[in-house]
Design brief:
- The complex is a heterodimer of chains A (about 525) and B (about 375).
- Chain A has about 525 residues and is of the alpha/beta class.
- Chain A is built from 19 helices and 22 strands.
- With about 375 residues, chain B is an all-alpha fold.
- Chain B has a single domain, classed as ABC transporter involved in vitamin B12 uptake, BtuC (Orthogonal Bundle), CATH 1.10.3470.
- The radius of gyration of chain B is 23 Å and the shape is globular.
- The chains are: A alpha/beta (about 525), B mainly alpha (about 375).
């Protein structure tokens, strides 16, 4: 392995990957326009850009999912056609997707040979794979238990399996699509160490991300994409986050949220001893106590899947629970007939759900239909026994204008808006109801930087009107930027609550990994 | 951002599908040594060439409108109600009971009463699988199919053991009283000077079916209930978020769906045979699935598709009567229509989208788009 890479390094001064003039249109949308990149072997190249800038399309072309309308791909100086992913693998390209493509109830080893079995019988392939797996683990410091089931290992480990899968297929070029989205800060650091090791072993890595921090931390060069075009390629050492952000959005961006200190008022949301047991009998929330006051933002941090979703679902009225929840002194019904989204809204709770495409919006509904979603029984939307569609449309036009939804066309289906604009539609619907309590989950997931700024401003403005806000996010940066107080959840429990001003990513990161206050103080 | 204009979507796609189905049907007819052109002529003249033919076409179409609407409304909630057949059978029982045991003074009152009973019986028959789905998670496709068989068996038992007049050998009820006789199209059109065939069974139920199409359109697209039904059909998780109860929507949708299927009985039981016989539905409940598929679950589409299938039914019967083309082949033709309009939709749609796309691109050439470079 080492010989080969050494040889290659000497033999070729050619870039590991070179794209020349790649263009790709989907119907009227030009997803990639005349894109050219050169990535030298043994480097990490970052590709950064807003959602919908065309990063994923470009990588899909490289991995053979799409065929470019125009342009050429050179691998190590050789012009290469990549009609499908098999060809990409043959050309030495490996891809680690944002959503892992692993079979949950297969072992690590079985997943690694999946699709690369040598013959009809599994046993010889497995034995061979086990050998090379151990060698790979040695070469790159990628230790995994080959016989563990995927469902039993953590997310960071699963990602490692994905990387091993690519390496097992002799990939010299690794593409990672938003690899840290599901990782704790500590796991992300570990991933970066692995990537650094791979680089030093001569592998070429393309890292797609929208997080500026990661680009600054690990890459050698970075390309910025905007609206399907490559706006710049720079050496990471010679740029700054602010410059990159500006290149991404095309204008200056506030990376920090401007806000005055909170003026907390009375307790609006009072949660006590909240427990949730799911259908499989697993306890998802194990006794949550939390309070949110008027005029403050309580951020709930934690790695995805530690009970934050269930907390939002209970408060949103579509998950039964035990314990007590009071909103402005009134108890919420947690199990009975009154435990649904409608009565929660009547209690003055608005909810921007974590997954706008699955919950917050009906993707096939027009924007105006979505504006009424959840509030479709509101008297102002009614005319007799019928819905007053004209009134809803008029309301939508106004909301779209105030929240700068683009394009401002109420008759466009939700699925045809970009992620940021979809989120603005949800946000406009929920915030303009003037709620006492706003639940907001992952407010900027899949949202472009320009829209992030706007959404953050709206949330802070609502706080300054004296509303209580419960913010759930897996982006620690976002939590720290927005929250007045931060609660960290781990394994269905609140590990602790901190004032945002008195804490930092390191402390929160430890708590997110389940290390308790006491442990953290001793410094474990 | 839709690629095709709406008219192409709703007119062109089904039309091309139909033409493809027709070409294949013609090949099949050629294959058994008959003349497809003559067959088409015979179908058209038999089904549309006379008021008698029209009378039958519209009679069948009325059945299919009810069962098509039944499937369509369920589709909107993403429920697949295959039980239209059984629900229509039970609707027939409701009509029979209403007509036999209540002394109606006038047909109009009888129609209202019978419609209500038909809808109630059909709805009740659909409510059981709906409940099992909503509360117990039993899949509605399975339960509604099974309920078709149960309905047939129940009806068999009731007709033979309870409703059969004493001394009759026929497993059917007695003839309904004259006061329940519905006016046929002949009766309705005579006052305005149109001489419609007396022998054809099409009757005032057709107007009820058309009204049902309209009301369903209002329900689906203009009421809060329709909004909730569609929302639930698009995304159950989103419906829960919005506070729309899946149990409630499943129950209500299936009750409406079953009611519509049941109402078919005013056409075939009350309007045509004027007594309840065994297997009165003759598969109309299943044709309803094809009608709803072809009509894209839109009431107007269901209306048009129902008339098309009425034509196929009546034309097919004529073919079987006057040529040596067997009745089974008519079923093949219907199956081809279903296959092309329902299942193979994308086969037509995709190439069509490409054509529209290239037309659009040709019309509005982008400045940065250069003409295609010559191949190397």
């Amino acid at each position: 392995m080492n010989d080969k890479t050494d040889m290659e390094r000497q033999a070729t001064a050619a870039p590991a990957i070179e794209l020349k003039g790649i263009s790709k249109a989907f119907g009227p949308v030009q997803a990639n326009k005349d894109i050219s990149i050169r990535v030298m072997p043994g480097t990490i190249h970052g590709i950064i850009g807003e959602n919908g800038a065309g990063k994923s399309t470009l990588m899909s072309i490289l991995y053979g999912f799409y065929k470019a309308d125009k342009g050429e791909i050179f691998i190590s100086g050789q012009k290469t056609d990549i009609p499908d992913s098999q060809a990409a693998i043959a050309a030495g390209i490996g891809m680690v997707f944002q959503h892992f493509k692993l079979v949950e109830n297969f072992t690590v080893l079985e997943n690694i040979i999946l699709g690369a079995e040598d013959g009809r019988l599994l046993k010889p392939s497995l034995a061979k794979a086990r050998k090379s797996l151990l060698k790979l683990a040695d070469d790159y410091g990628l230790k995994v238990d080959p016989d563990a089931l995927i469902q039993d290992i953590g997310v960071g480990m699963q990602q490692r399996v994905e990387i091993l899968k690519a390496l097992y297929r002799q990939a010299d070029i690794l593409i990672l699509d938003e690899p840290t989205g599901v990782l704790t800060p500590a796991e992300a650091d570990q991933l970066f160490r692995i990537l650094g090791r791979l680089r030093s072993e001569g592998k070429t890595i393309i890292l797609i991300t929208h997080k500026l921090r990661e680009i600054m931390e690990i890459t050698d060069t970075v390309s910025v994409m905007r609206r399907g075009q490559m706006t710049a390629t720079v050496k990471t050492a010679e740029t700054s986050p602010a410059e990159l952000a500006e290149l991404m959005v095309g204008r200056k961006v506030l990376l920090r949220v401007d806000k005055v200190p909170a003026q907390p008022g009375d307790v609006v949301l009072d949660i006590h001893g909240l427990r949730v047991v799911d259908e499989k009998g697993v306890e998802r929330l194990r006794g949550i106590d939390l309070q949110v006051r008027a005029g403050e933002i309580l951020g709930v941090a934690g790695v995805a899947g530690n009970g934050q979703s269930e907390l939002l679902e209970v408060l949103g009225g579509y998950q039964t629970a035990t314990g007590t929840v009071h909103v402005k002194g009134q108890a919420l019904d947690l199990t009975g007939k009154q435990s649904d989204g409608q009565s929660r809204r009547n209690h003055g709770i608005a909810h921007v759900p974590e997954d706008r495409q699955r919950e917050g919006l009906i993707m096939d509904y027009h924007a105006w239909e979505n504006t009424a979603f959840g509030y479709h029984k509101d008297p102002s939307y009614r005319s007799g026994i019928l819905m007053n569609n004209a009134a809803i449309k008029a309301d939508t036009v106004e909301k779209m204008e105030r929240f700068d939804v683009r394009p401002p066309n109420p008759k466009l289906a939700a699925k045809n808006f970009s992620g940021g604009n979809q989120q603005k539609i949800v946000l406009a619907r929920e915030i303009e109801r003037n709620p006492d309590l706003l639940l907001i989950g992952q407010p900027t997931r899949g949202v472009d930087i320009g829209a992030i700024e706007f959404i953050h401003q709206q949330i802070v403005a609502l706080r300054d009107q004296g509303k209580a806000i419960l913010l759930v996010s897996v982006e620690l940066e976002e939590i720290l930027a927005l929250s007045d107080r931060v609660a960290v959840m781990f394994d269905g429990q609140v590990m602790g609550v901190r004032n945002a001003a008195d804490t930092d990513e390191k402390e929160l990161g430890l708590m997110m990994a389940g290390i308790t206050d006491a442990d953290a103080k001793i410094g474990v | 951002m839709d690629v095709m204009p709406k008219w192409a979507e709703v007119v062109l796609v089904p039309l091309i599908s139909l033409i493809l189905a027709a070409i294949l049907s013609a090949l099949v007819i050629l294959g058994i040594g008959e003349d497809p052109v003559a067959a088409v002529k015979l179908m058209v003249s038999g089904a549309l060439g006379s008021t008698y033919g029209w009378g039958y076409t519209l009679y069948y179409a009325t059945n299919f409108m009810f069962t098509g609407l039944c499937v369509a409304i369920a589709f909107h909630a993403r429920l697949f109600n295959i039980g239209g057949e059984g629900q229509a059978m039970l609707g027939g029982l409701g009509v029979a009971l209403a007509c036999l045991y209540i002394p109606w003074p006038h047909w109009s009152l009888a129609l209202i009463g019978a419609t209500t009973m038909a809808a109630l019986f059909g709805a009740a028959w659909a409510a059981i699988p709906a409940f099992l789905q909503a509360k117990r998670g039993s899949h509605i496709v399975i339960t509604t199919i099974m309920f078709n068989f149960i309905a047939a068996a129940v009806l068999n038992y009731i007709l033979v053991n309870m409703l059969r007049p004493k001394g009759s050998m026929d497993p059917a009820t007695a003839r309904f009283p004259d006061a329940t006789k519905l006016p046929t199209l002949h009766d309705l059109l005579a006052p305005i000077g149109i001489n419609f065939s007396k022998a054809a069974p099409a009757n005032i139920s057709l107007l009820v079916a058309i009204a049902a199409c309209f009301f369903l359109w209002v329900l689906i697209w203009r009421t809060r209930l329709g909004y909730e039904i569609r929302a639930y059909g698009h995304s159950e998780s989103a419906a829960k978020y919005a506070g729309i109860s899946p149990v409630k929507i499943t129950m209500i949708t299936m009750i409406i769906s079953g009611g519509l299927a049941g109402m078919m009985a005013i056409n075939n039981v009350m309007g045509e045979s004027e007594r309840l016989v065994l297997n009165a539905t003759e598969g109309a409940g299943f044709i309803g699935i094809a009608v709803a598929l072809m009509g894209r679950s839109h009431p107007l589409g269901v209306f048009l598709a129902a008339i098309l299938f009425g034509f196929l039914y009546q034309g097919g019967a004529e073919l079987a009567l006057w040529t040596s083309i067997p009745r089974e082949l008519i079923v093949v033709i219907q199956a081809l229509v279903i296959l092309f309009t329902g299942a193979l939709d994308n086969m037509v749609r995709m190439p069509l989208e490409k054509i529209f796309l290239s037309i659009r691109n040709a019309r509005a050439p982008k400045p940065e788009r250069k003409p295609v470079e010559p191949a190397e």
